[in-house]
Amino acid sequence: MTLSSRTILLPVFAVLVIGSAAVLALGQETGAPKANGRTQGQGTPRREDNKRPPDRTQYSYDFSQPKFYINHILIEHNAAGEGKITFERLGEGGPITEPVELSIAALSRVLGLWADLNFLDSSENYQAEKQFPHLGTMRLHMENGDRKRTAEFNWTNDKKAGALANEYRRLADQAIFVFDMTLARENQPLNTPKLMEQLDSLVAHGGLSDEYQLLPLLRDLTTDEHVPLITRNHAARLLKRIEK
Length: 244
Known about the structure:
The model is unreliable at about 1-45 (pLDDT under 50). This protein has helices spanning about 5-30, 105-115, 160-185, 190-205, 215-220, 230-244; strands spanning about 60-65, 70-80, 80-90, 95-100, 135-145, 145-155. It folds into 2 domains: about 55-170, Mago nashi protein (2-Layer Sandwich), CATH 3.30.1560; about 190-244, no CATH class. A hairpin with a 2-residue loop joins strand 5 and strand 6. Helix content is about 45%, strand content about 20%. It is globular and about 55 Å long. It is α+β, with helices and mostly antiparallel strands and about 240 residues long. The protein has 6 helices and 6 strands; from the N terminus they run αββββαββαααα.
């Protein structure tokens, strides 16, 4: 082949190469889906699509016995364990309302028991055949949107319903202790030793919703010079017992 022939063929070859590359690129744009397997119109779901709607279920426990010193207790909370407690004492005026928050451990137990009871879908009567009205009346209430149900009993042989009522009773005792201790520290420091004795008994008998929630309060009491030394020492002993 002569030099002049090579000169003619080289531009033709270049045109062919460029044309082939263009056809190949066009085929990649309009051909089969990419290797990741997504078809046209599909993609990564938006973050909003992965969000679950908030649980708006409301729960409450109501206890009443007009002759008891603490004659009425109402605990209301949401699915996150946030709510309030309202209680009344015999001969001490109107109701007292305080915020309340279940610890993660306590909330897990409480919600687990509600679920075990299948409360909204159940028609179970938790009242035992034998009546004990002198012990007070308990009401468990749950609602979710238009669905709601209340169960009332003064004594039950249902272990799950009884366990749920006990959880709320412990929560009430803990919340009322915190309220009483806060009030005593501000106005009647000499009442704090007796309150510490009550707390000691609750700790010893498993009568608290979550004793670890009281650790900040106990640490604060150990250095509070407004309360008697006996209170500070008792708080220090309880602190060590709980932390173990």
